[in-house]
Predict the 3D structure of the following.
Amino acid sequence: MYEWIKAVHVIAVISWMAGMLYLPRLLVYHCEAEIGSKQSETFKTMERRLLKAIINPAMMVAWAAGLYLAWSGHWFLTGWFDVKLVLVLVLSGIHGYLARWVRDFSFDRNQRSHKFYRIINEMPALLMMGIVILVIVKPF
């Protein structure tokens, strides 16, 4: 069963990361759309659907499967896992902020520039690299 749960976990993480890499890019482009325009309304729909249909469910499955794997594999007692868990918590925090920013855009209340979202766009990728290195290499 462990291998099947691991497969589900990897699929969920890939789906979560795909959304986490794409959503900030949508926000970059949304910043440049005029409020009330057809383009702005299209971005709102895309952002909402991406968040609700892909990113949120994928994160929940990744967390559930990941916690099961950590528990059954006795990973909670290893140093690399502690660091990985912190990075995943930070990634989850970014997820929460993205959800808030999508909500802000949905009410035409965005206060941030496209440059801000360009920087945010890089954070999930950097966290993902750290997480993957910790899981594969297990350096400590």
